[in-house]
Amino acid sequence: MDFNFSADQIALKKMAQELVAKEITPYVHEMDEKSEMRPGLIQKFHNAGILNLVVPEEYDGPGLDALSIALIYEELGKGCAGVATSAAANALASYPVLVAGTDEQKRKMFDALNDGKLAAFALTEPNAGSDAGGVATSAVKDGEYYVLNGTKCFITNGGISDVYTVFANARKSAGIRGLTAFIVDRDTPGFSVGKKEDKMGMRPSNTTELILDNVRVHESMRIGREGEGFKIAMKTLDAARPLVGAVAVGLADAALQAACKYAKERQQFGKPIASFQLVQGMIADMVMAVETARLMVYKACWLKDQGQDYKLESAMAKCLSADVAMKVTTDAVQVMGGYGYMKEYPVEKMMRDAKLLQIYEGTNQIQRLVIANSVLY
Ligand code: CAA
């Protein structure tokens, strides 16, 4: 792997840094308090060309490689992990179509995204979280249509999207082999947005329930074959998890920088606390953890870009980086003591945000199962 980034990658990283400095950092506290993104922020991302990074060139997108996308998400993660999560939801919703969609489906999905619309990935249900194969939403064939009934929960951008990739079971008796993916428009009769969640962290990202009440979807909007949905979902999550890792690395790095700045300024016993070796030990551990997680994310992306198998590295990148983000943000609060615990300083929010990285897109316990199964069997 070449650790020298290309001129394009350096330019993308710089552009993302400038966007974060101008459009996210000054408003982080306000967005956290209000539990919503600033109006127009998504449009600004779209205008800057960083909302639909996975849309291929043949569908008028940038068709960026995974490593370049990770570099951008690392910068967004430094600004606000919640905003980064919301911006990444279009990629998550696009992967099922990229994995198994027809040309017509790709055109429909990517035209909408290129127009600035948002998409959401709807897999999780009240009783199907880690057990993704346990989806209870049903899809019953009726002529050329499928009739979908069920409830989805914890859907990122659920309330602010126009198009959804929805997983439902078309053959209940077949269990996970009945799972089937569909593209569903928000304005389809019977489709509605339910409760908006009031979250501990990542508060600017919109998280809602979705309700499907006799939603009729034409068979041309079934992604892949009937029963192929579970594998499509797994391949989607393989592709998306390094991005979660990139956001986690950015978040952890931002907490580390905040802790270093504070440690150099804060005087105790007549000296900056950065001069105390117990503080230096914490900082050194944070630096090593962030860099290790970053390397794991870059490796997973590099393997994907080389067309090699990257399922194991994808799970490791997500799991390691999310755990690092949790530990580093917690230690940043510790370095900053009482001030770190106060909302006036940035790190308590980072610590709250980090927790979700260990939970969504597959809990870190699930990642450990994937990792262990990859090497054991
Ligand atoms: N790629 C391709 N195929 C795969 C695969 C992969 N990564 N993983 C599994 N499969 C295939 C297997 O080969 C197997 O195929 P066969 O039946 O043909 O042999 C089939 O899928 C079943 O595999 P398993 O027996 O391993 O499945 P399992 O039931 O034991 O579950 C699991 C596996 C890893 C636990 C899976 O259920 C899982 O990943 N759960 C977590 C779900 C998750 O990440 N949810 C997050 C939702 S999205 C979200 O959070 C986003 C948001 O909005 C915030």
Give structural attributes.
377 residues, four-stranded antiparallel beta sheet, alpha+beta, 10 strands, binds acetoacetyl-coenzyme A
Task: Present the secondary structure layout.
Elements: H1 7-24, H2 28-34, H3 41-47, H4 66-79, H5 81-100, H6 103-114, E1 119-122, E2 138-142, E3 145-156, E4 163-169, E5 179-185, E6 191-196, E7 207-218, E8 222-223, H7 229-265, E9 267-268, E10 271-272, H8 277-305, H9 311-340, H10 347-357, H11 364-376
Parallel strand pairs: 1-4
Antiparallel strand pairs: 2-3, 3-7, 4-5, 5-8, 6-7, 9-10
Helix pairs in contact: 1-4, 4-5, 4-7, 5-6, 5-7, 7-8, 7-9, 7-10, 8-9, 9-10, 9-11
The chain binds acetoacetyl-coenzyme A.
Major sheet: arrangement of strands: 1-4-5-8
Biggest β-sheet strands, sense, barrel: 4 strands, mixed
Shape: globular
Distance between the termini: 27 Å
Class computed from helices, strands and strand pairing: alpha+beta
Instruction: Please provide the count of β strands.
Output: 10
Low-confidence stretches: none
Which oligomerization state do the chains in this entry correspond to?
single chain
Q: Give me the Rg, rounded.
A: 21 Å
Helix content: 40-55%
**Topology pattern, helix = H, strand = E:** HHHHHHEEEEEEEEHEEHHHH
* Tally of contiguous helical segments: 11
Q: Which molecules other than protein and nucleic acid are bound?
A: acetoacetyl-coenzyme A
Query: Kindly state the mean pLDDT as a whole number?
Result: 97
How much of the sequence lies in strands comes to 15-25%
